[in-house]
Amino acid sequence: MASSSPATDVEGEAPRLNRRQAAKVRTRQKVLDAARQLFAERGYEPATIRDIAKGAGMSTGAVFANFQDKAELFEAVLATDMVKLAETLKAAAAAETTVRGRLLAALTAGYHVSLEQLPLVQAVIARSWFQPVAAEMRARAAITPLISVVTDALQAGVGDREIRQDADVRLLGEMIYEAWLSNYRRAAYDGWTIQQLTARIGKQIDVILAGALSRQ
What we know:
Order of helices and strands: HHHHHHHHHH
Number of strands: 0
Structural class: mainly alpha
Largest sheet: none
Helix content: over 70%
Oligomer: single chain
Radius of gyration: 21 Å
Strand content: under 5%
Distance between the termini: 73 Å
Shape: elongated
């Protein structure tokens, strides 16, 4: 008797989706794309489920069939975007050969990508102060890949003897990431450009690493 469950052609491959499952995946992606665009343009609060549904070309019921509420939808957008952003940072860091070069290249690449959707960045930062503990834990998990790019660059510096062997790489990584994130306020309220943000984070990296550099 034929099974209604997804089939595979080769053992170990991901199962093929039937039409209904494939349609559900497409619907979910349309909602995510529409939500990302509105969050990036308006921020969190002004972006309504009604407008997101309209942008996706479907009913609000279709949105709620895929996401419990706007908060869950926002978290899904954030999680997806953080993975892509981490890949961008990692690729930029890989092109450099010094710890400062890796850090500056990675974080500048991050500004290039995210400055175009500044309201979304502002929404992420603003919500981090008021979301439930469970949501905060999920948000921390979502940004872990970004911090890992920074700590990996620092760890490479330890291996290259640019950074002291006893340096607290985790703490340094968190401090550099938090400095990078804090600069978005300058972009939002003072109209800082990529060049100004890059210069700023470069100086912050120098200050934070000053006591951790090897004395050779």
